[in-house]
Q: What sequence folds into this?
C-alpha cells in the first residue's frame, strides 16, 4: 500500500539525533586519571572512604576481570573498547557526597529540572497538591549520587533508601551480607568490571512486613566525556515487604561512545515483592551510528524465599548498544518472576535483550512478555532462557515475544532457549514477527490521523500489555517517549 | 586464549583413520581435494562441544566415545534373509548395505521414464562433472561436523535423477542396512535431482541387523526444481547401541512443493539435521518430524531454513515424546533476508515428558530482515494433560490405554501430514507398537525398556 | 444404589464439603440445587474421582461398595457416569476411537467380548440420531469445534452408549438455549428406568421443568441443608437461595 510505503520512508529518513536530552551541563568535575589498574581501584575505594573488606573485594574482582574475555555471543557489533582510555571516576566538584539540597550546585538542580526530575521536595509536594503522587528520587550524576529525596519520610517506615556508597558506611552488615550474593564477582566480563570499579548507585532495604509508602526512583545521568558509568544497585525486600522502584537514564549527545556497565541485584525473601521498572533513554548515537552509549548491564533478582515475587519492566529506547537480560532465580517454592519488555530500536541501534527465568523451587511461575520494534537500520534481538530444574515440580512458564518491523533495512530476531528437566512443569512459548498491518494503518489514516501519529498509535497498542505494568506516573511519559523514539521529533 | 584440549579417543581414531583411508576411498584427485578440505576443518576444531552453539545440546566431544573402523562388505545372504523383498512391495526398493549401494539387492525393473539411478562411488571414480558440482556446499553447511565427516569418509550412495516433467508415482525407498560385528562406521551420500515439474516420493529407512554400536552418517542432497513436487520421509530405526547422524540438504525451486518428515525412533545418539533453502519464489514446504525416546537415548533435531525468495510458505512441526531418562533437543532456525517479502512461516515444537527423569530442550529461532512477513514460532513442554486424562478415565478407559491414546493424538498431529498413506500407516503401527510396549511395561510396574 | 455418608473434602487448605449425606435409590431422580460456591461441582468431581480433591472424612458407596479408593476409570466401569459441565476437548483423538475404547472398557469389565466394528457403528448411530448428532460431528476429534449445545448432547450420547447405573449431570443446562435444553432433557428422560438413577446438579429450576425430579436437595456451604419434593425447586426459583446462605452462615 502506497500510504504505508510513504510512512516507512518517512520514518527511515528521520534523524534520530533529535535526541531531547542531548545537552551537556557545564559542571566542573573531578576525574580519576584515565585507565584501569589496581591503583585506580584503590583510588575509587578511597574516594568513597570504604572499609578494607570492600577494597579487597574490588581488587579480587579486578584481578579476575583481567583473566576474562569480552563476550561475543550477542548479536551486536561494535568497535573494540579501549578500557584504558576511560575515566573510571568522575564527580561534580562542588558536591562531595549527598548533603542537604541547599549545598547542591544549582547547575545540577537545573540539569535535573531540564530532564523533568524535580529534586526539591517542596516542588514535588507542590505537585502532590495538584494530585500527583510523590516519588522519592536518588539522583546519580556520573559517578556519584548528588541527592536523595524523602529520606526522612521513608526512615519513619524503616525503609532505607540512600546511595550505596553511604550504605557501605551506615549499614555495612546489610551491604556485606547481600552485595554480590545474586551476581557474584565472577559472573561475567561486565559484571566483574563493575564489581571492581562501581562508583555509586542506590541501596534500598525494606524491613519485614513493610509496604514502602512511595515509589522509589533513581535517575542516572552520564555527563562527563570519556567516562564509564558503573553503578551498582542493591535492593532487599525482607519478609512480607513490598517495594516499587524505577530507574531512568539519559546522557548528552557526544561523538564518542560512553560506556555504561551496571549491576543490579534484587533479593526478595519470604512473601516479599519487588517491582523494578526501567525507562532507559541513554543517548542512542546519531543516524549514522556515531556516538551513543554502550549499555552492558547485568540485572538479576533472587526470589530467595517462599512466595517471593520479582517483576522486571523495561522500556528500552536508548543506547547505541544494549546488552541486557534482567533475570529471576526462582529459588523459593511458589515464587514468581515476571519480565515485561518494550525494546525500540531505530537508526543504527543494536539491541540484544531478554531474560532468564531459572525455576528451582516447586510451583514456581514465570511470565515473559516481550515486544520488540525495529525501525531504521537497527537490529533488535530477543534472547531468553527458561530453565526448569529437576526439583521444580509444578513449575509454569508462559512466554510471548512479538516483534514488529518498520521498513526492510532493520532486523528482528528471536532466540529463546527452553530447557525442562521436570515432567510436571509446563512451559509455553509463542512468538510472532510481522509489520504494522495495512488494514490498521488504512483505518487510522481514513479517520484522519497523520501517518506518524498513526504509527505511534498502533505501536502503542502493540506494546500496551507491557505499558500497563509501569507505575501510573510514568506511563504517559513513556507513551510519548515511544512516539519520539520512532519519529525522532518532539510530538 | 584457551589451550587446545587433549584429543578424545574418538578424535584420535578419526585422526588415524583418515590418512590411512583417503586414497582408497572412491574418487579422482578432485574428490580427494574436497575430502582433504573437509577433514582439515575437523582436524582444526576437533569435535564440537556444548560451547559450540550448533551443538549446544549434543556435545559430540563428550558423547562420541569412539569412532569405529569403516564397515566391510555386508553379508548379502543375511541381508536377504532379514529383509526379503516382498512381492507387491509398494515402494521401489534400493538397498545400501554397509555403506555400499547393492544393485543386486535392489528393484531396478521397469524404471519409470525419466527416472535414473546410479552409484555415487562410480560417479566419483569417473570424475563426473555434474556430480562433482553437486558435492559443493555453502560454507556453513560444509563446515558442519556431521557434513564434513560425511564428505571425508563417504563410500557410496545413490545418484537419482528425475527428468523434467517426469511423474514417478511409485515411491522410491532407500533401505540402509548395517550388518555385521564388531561395530563399524558408514558414510553415505545421496544426490537427488528432481527436474522441472517432476514428481518424486523418496523414503529412507535406516536400520541395523545387529545390536552393536554402529555409526551411520547419511546425507541426502535434494534439488527440487521449479514446480517440482517432492515428498521425503526418513524412518530412523537403529538399535539403542547405535550412533546415527543424518543430514538433509534441500534447495527448493520456484513454485515447487517440498515436504520432509523425519521419524527418530532409534539409536542411542541420534542427530537429524536439515539445511534447506528456498531458491525460487512462490514455493511451499513442510518440515516435520517425531521423536520417540526411552531408556537413556538422546536425540537432536536441528533445522536451518533460509526463506531466500519472495512469497514462500513453510510449516515446521516437530513433536517429541520422552520417557525414562532420555533427552530430546530441538533447534530450529528460520532466516528471512530483506528481499524475501511476503514470507509466511510457522514453526511449532512440542515435547511431552513421560517420566520424572526425562529432559527436553528447545531453541526455536527467528532471524528476520524483511518487514512484510508473517512469521511465528511456538514451543511447549509438559506432561500429559491431567484434564484430558481424567476425562478419558471417567469414561472407563484404563490409565495406560488412555495415556497411549493421548500420546498417539499428540504425535498424530505431525504424522497425519504424511501424504503417502502406506508410509503413514506403517509409522502409526510402529508408534502403536512402541506405546504397547510402554503400556505393558507400566502395567507390570517396571520401567519401560 | 449411591450412598454418601458424612462426606468431607478439601482442595488445598480449603474445606469445601463439610459433612454431606445423600442416599439415591434405583429409579430415582435427585436434583441438587444451590448457590454458586456451595460445592456442587466439587461433589461431582469427587464422585468421579478427580485427584485435585482430598476426601478427609466420610464414605461413598456405589451398590454397597466403597468407591473412594477406585481410580476414575474403575468408577466408570462400576457404573458411574459424569456429564461434565465443561466437556473436555481432545484434539487428535477421533470421537469414534474414543467411544470405542470407552465402550470396550465397559464390556471388558462385564466380561463381554469386544464389539465388532459394524456392531459398534450401529450402536453409535442409533444413539447419535436420537440426539441430533450428525455423522459429521462424529468424525471430528473429541468435542473439538463443538458448540456448547453440541458438547452437552455429545455427553448425553456417551451416557446412552455406556448405559451407566448412576448418572451425575453437572450443570448440564448451562449455556443451552431452550431448544437444545429440550433435546438434552428428552435424551435423559429416555434413559430413565427402574434400575438407573440420576443426580441432576443445577443452579436454576428451568432444567427441572424438563427432567422432573423425585427429590430436591439444597446444597449450601458444603452440606445438604434442606430436602423436599419438586415444589422445593419452584420455591427456590421464586425466593432465591438467600435464606439458605444465611442458614449456612449462622
A:
Amino acid at each position: 500500500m502506497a500510504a504505508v510505503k510513504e510512512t516507512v520512508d518517512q520514518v527511515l529518513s528521520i534523524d534520530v539525533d533529535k535526541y531531547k536530552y542531548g545537552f551537556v551541563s557545564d559542571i566542573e568535575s573531578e576525574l580519576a586519571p584515565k585507565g584501569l589498574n589496581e591503583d585506580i581501584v584503590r583510588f575509587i575505594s578511597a574516594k568513597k572512604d570504604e572499609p578494607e573488606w570492600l577494597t579487597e573485594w574490588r581488587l579480587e574482582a579486578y584481578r579476575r576481570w583481567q583473566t576474562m574475555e569480552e563476550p561475543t555471543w550477542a548479536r551486536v557489533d561494535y568497535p573494540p573498547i579501549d578500557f584504558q582510555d576511560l575515566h573510571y571516576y568522575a564527580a561534580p566538584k562542588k558536591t562531595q557526597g549527598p548533603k542537604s539540597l541547599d549545598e547542591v550546585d544549582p547547575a545540577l538542580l537545573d540539569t535535573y529540572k531540564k530532564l523533568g526530575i524535580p529534586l526539591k521536595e517542596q516542588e514535588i509536594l507542590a505537585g502532590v497538591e495538584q494530585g500527583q503522587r510523590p516519588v522519592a528520587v536518588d539522583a546519580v550524576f556520573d559517578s556519584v549520587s548528588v541527592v536523595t529525596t524523602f529520606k526522612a519520610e521513608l526512615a519513619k517506615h524503616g525503609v532505607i533508601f540512600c546511595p550505596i556508597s553511604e550504605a557501605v558506611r551506615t549499614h555495612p552488615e546489610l551491604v556485606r551480607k547481600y552485595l554480590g550474593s545474586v551476581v557474584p564477582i565472577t559472573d561475567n566480563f561486565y559484571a566483574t568490571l563493575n564489581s571492581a570499579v562501581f562508583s555509586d548507585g542506590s541501596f534500598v532495604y525494606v524491613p519485614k512486613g513493610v509496604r514502602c509508602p512511595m515509589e522509589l526512583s533513581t535517575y542516572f545521568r552520564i555527563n562527563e566525556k570519556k567516562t564509564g558509568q558503573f553503578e551498582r544497585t542493591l535492593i532487599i525486600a525482607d519478609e512480607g515487604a513490598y517495594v516499587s522502584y524505577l530507574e531512568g537514564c539519559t546522557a548528552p549527545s557526544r561523538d564518542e561512545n560512553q560506556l555504561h556497565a551496571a549491576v543490579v541485584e534484587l533479593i526478595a525473601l519470604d512473601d516479599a515483592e519487588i517491582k523494578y521498572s526501567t525507562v532507559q533513554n541513554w543517548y542512542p548515537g546519531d543516524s549514522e551510528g556515531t556516538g551513543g552509549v554502550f549499555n552492558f548491564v547485568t540485572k538479576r533478582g533472587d526470589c530467595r524465599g517462599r512466595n517471593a515475587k520479582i517483576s522486571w519492566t523495561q522500556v528500552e529506547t536508548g543506547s547505541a548498544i544494549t546488552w541486557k537480560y534482567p533475570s529471576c532465580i526462582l529459588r523459593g517454592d511458589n515464587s514468581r518472576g515476571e519480565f515485561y519488555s518494550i525494546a525500540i530500536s531505530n537508526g543504527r541501534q543494536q539491541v540484544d535483550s531478554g531474560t532468564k527465568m531459572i525455576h528451582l523451587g516447586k510451583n514456581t511461575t514465570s511470565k515473559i512478555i516481550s515486544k520488540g520494534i525495529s525501525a531504521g537500520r537497527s537490529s533488535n534481538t530477543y534472547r531468553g532462557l527458561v530453565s526448569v530444574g529437576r526439583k521444580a515440580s509444578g513449575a509454569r512458564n508462559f512466554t510471548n515475544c512479538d516483534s514488529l518491523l518498520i521498513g526492510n533495512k532493520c532486523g528482528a530476531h528471536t532466540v529463546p532457549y527452553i530447557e525442562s528437566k521436570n515432567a510436571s512443569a509446563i512451559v509455553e512459548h509463542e512468538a510472532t514477527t510481522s509489520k504494522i498491518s495495512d488494514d490498521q494503518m488504512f483505518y487510522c489514516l481514513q479517520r484522519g490521523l497523520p501517518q506518524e501519529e498513526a504509527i505511534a498509535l498502533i505501536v502503542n497498542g502493540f506494546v500496551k500489555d507491557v505499558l500497563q505494568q509501569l507505575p501510573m506516573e510514568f506511563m504517559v511519559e513513556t507513551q510519548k517517549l515511544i512516539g519520539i523514539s520512532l519519529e525522532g521529533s518532539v510530538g | 586464549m584457551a589451550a587446545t584440549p587433549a584429543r578424545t579417543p574418538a578424535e584420535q581414531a578419526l585422526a588415524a583413520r583418515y590418512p590411512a583411508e583417503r586414497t582408497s576411498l572412491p574418487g579422482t584427485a578432485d574428490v580427494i581435494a574436497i575430502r582433504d578440505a573437509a577433514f582439515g576443518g575437523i582436524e582444526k576444531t576437533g569435535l564440537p562441544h556444548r560451547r559450540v552453539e550448533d551443538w549446544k545440546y549434543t556435545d559430540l566431544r563428550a558423547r562420541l566415545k569412539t569412532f569405529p573402523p569403516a564397515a566391510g562388505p555386508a553379508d548379502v545372504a543375511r541381508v536377504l534373509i532379514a529383509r526379503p523383498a516382498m512381492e507387491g512391495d509398494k515402494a521401489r526398493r534400493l538397498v545400501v548395505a554397509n555403506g555400499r549401494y547393492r544393485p543386486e539387492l535392489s528393484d531396478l525393473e521397469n524404471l519409470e521414464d525419466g527416472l535414473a539411478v546410479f552409484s555415487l562411488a562410480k560417479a566419483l571414480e569417473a570424475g563426473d562433472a555434474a556430480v562433482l558440482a553437486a558435492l559443493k556446499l555453502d560454507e556453513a553447511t560444509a563446515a558442519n561436523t556431521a557434513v564434513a565427516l560425511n564428505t571425508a569418509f563417504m563410500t557410496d550412495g545413490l545418484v537419482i535423477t528425475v527428468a523434467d516433467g517426469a511423474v514417478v508415482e511409485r515411491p522410491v525407498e532407500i533401505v540402509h542396512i548395517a550388518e555385521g560385528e564388531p561395530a563399524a562406521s558408514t558414510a553415505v551420500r545421496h544426490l537427488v535431482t528432481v527436474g522441472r515439474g517432476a514428481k518424486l516420493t523418496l523414503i529412507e529407512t535406516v536400520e541395523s541387523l545387529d545390536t552393536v554400536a554402529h555409526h551411520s552418517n547419511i546425507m541426502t542432497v535434494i534439488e527440487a526444481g521449479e514446480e517440482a513436487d517432492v515428498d521425503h520421509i526418513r524412518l530412523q530405526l537403529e538399535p539403542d547401541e547405535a550412533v546415527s547422524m543424518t543430514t538433509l540438504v534441500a534447495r527448493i525451486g520456484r513454485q515447487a512443493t517440498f515436504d520432509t518428515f523425519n521419524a527418530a525412533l532409534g539409536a542411542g545418539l541420534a542427530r537429524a539435521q536439515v539445511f534447506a533453502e528456498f531458491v525460487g519464489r512462490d514455493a511451499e514446504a513442510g518440515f516435520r518430524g517425531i521423536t520417540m525416546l526411552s531408556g537413556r537415548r538422546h536425540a537432536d533435531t536441528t533445522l536451518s531454513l533460509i526463506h531466500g525468495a519472495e512469497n514462500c510458505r513453510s510449516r515446521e512441526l516437530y513433536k517429541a515424546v520422552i520417557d525414562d531418562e532420555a533427552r530430546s533437543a530441538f533447534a530450529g532456525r528460520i532466516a528471512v533476508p530483506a528481499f524475501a517479502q511476503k514470507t509466511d512461516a510457522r514453526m511449532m515444537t512440542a515435547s511431552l515428558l513421560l517420566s520424572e527423569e526425562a529432559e527436553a530442550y528447545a531453541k526455536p529461532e527467528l532471524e528476520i530482515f524483511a518487514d512484510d512477513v508473517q512469521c511465528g514460532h511456538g514451543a511447549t513442554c509438559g506432561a500429559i494433560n491431567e484434564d484430558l486424562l481424567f476425562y478419558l478415565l471417567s469414561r472407563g478407559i484404563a490409565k495406560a490405554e488412555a495415556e497411549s491414546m493421548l500420546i498417539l493424538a499428540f504425535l498424530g498431529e505431525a504424522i497425519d501430514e504424511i501424504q503417502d498413506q502406506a508410509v503413514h500407516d506403517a509409522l502409526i503401527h510402529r508408534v502403536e507398537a512402541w506405546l504397547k510396549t510402554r503400556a505393558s511395561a507400566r502395567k507390570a510396574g517396571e520401567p519401560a525398556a | 444404589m449411591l450412598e454418601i455418608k458424612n462426606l468431607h473434602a478439601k482442595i488445598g487448605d480449603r474445606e469445601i464439603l463439610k459433612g454431606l449425606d445423600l442416599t439415591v435409590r434405583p429409579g430415582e431422580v435427585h436434583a441438587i440445587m444451590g448457590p454458586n460456591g456451595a460445592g456442587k461441582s466439587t461433589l461431582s468431581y469427587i464422585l468421579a474421582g478427580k485427584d485435585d480433591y482430598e476426601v478427609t472424612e466420610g464414605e461413598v458407596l456405589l451398590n454397597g461398595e466403597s468407591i473412594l479408593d477406585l481410580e476414575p476409570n474403575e468408577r466408570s466401569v462400576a457404573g458411574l457416569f459424569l456429564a461434565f459441565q465443561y466437556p473436555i476437548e481432545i484434539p487428535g483423538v477421533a470421537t469414534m476411537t474414543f467411544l470405542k475404547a470407552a465402550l470396550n472398557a465397559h464390556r471388558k469389565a462385564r466380561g463381554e467380548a469386544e464389539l465388532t466394528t459394524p456392531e459398534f457403528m450401529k450402536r453409535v448411530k442409533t444413539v447419535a440420531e436420537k440426539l441430533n448428532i450428525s455423522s459429521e460431528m462424529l468424525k471430528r476429534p473429541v468435542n473439538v469445534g463443538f458448540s456448547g449445545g453440541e458438547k452437552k448432547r455429545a455427553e448425553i450420547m456417551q451416557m446412552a452408549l455406556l448405559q451407566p447405573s448412576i448418572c451425575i449431570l453437572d450443570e448440564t443446562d448451562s449455556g443451552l438455549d431452550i431448544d437444545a435444553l429440550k433435546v438434552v432433557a428428552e435424551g435423559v428422560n429416555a434413559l430413565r428406568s427402574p434400575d438407573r438413577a440420576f443426580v441432576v446438579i443445577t443452579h436454576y429450576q428451568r432444567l427441572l421443568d424438563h427432567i422432573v425430579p423425585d427429590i430436591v436437595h439444597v446444597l449450601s456451604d458444603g452440606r445438604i441443608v434442606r430436602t423436599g419434593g419438586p415444589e422445593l425447586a419452584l420455591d427456590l426459583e421464586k425466593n432465591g437461595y438467600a435464606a439458605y446462605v444465611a442458614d449456612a452462615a449462622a
Summary: Chains A and C do not touch (no CB pair under 8 Å). Confidence is low (pLDDT under 50) at residues 1-8, 10-17 of chain A.
